Amino acid sequence: xxxxxxxxxxxxxxxxxxxxxxxxxxxxxxxxxxxxxxxxxxxxxxxxxxxxxxxxxxxxxxxxxxxxxxxxxxxxxxxxx
Length: 81
Known about the structure:
Organism: Mesorhabditis belari
Largest sheet: none
Protein name: Histone-lysine N-methyltransferase SETMAR
Order of helices and strands: HHHH
Radius of gyration: 16 Å
GO molecular function, one term: nucleic acid binding
Number of helices: 4
InterPro entries: RNaseH_sf, Transposase-MT_Hybrid
Helix content: 55-70%
Structural class: mainly alpha
């Protein structure tokens, strides 16, 4: 098929969209937020996901290519955002 398999670390926060896109957005939304119990956390997380427009998730996916390029250009070193 003409595919070249490239080695990569088993986990890297620079490569994981959950870290550089999703969790960053959640972090900003959580500023100063305090929960009284686990149920409040679960409700907040559900509401967070439901409130995000489709474009939010598309942006995270579409940013992968550029993010990977940045990691390659940095020779795998940690990226400072």
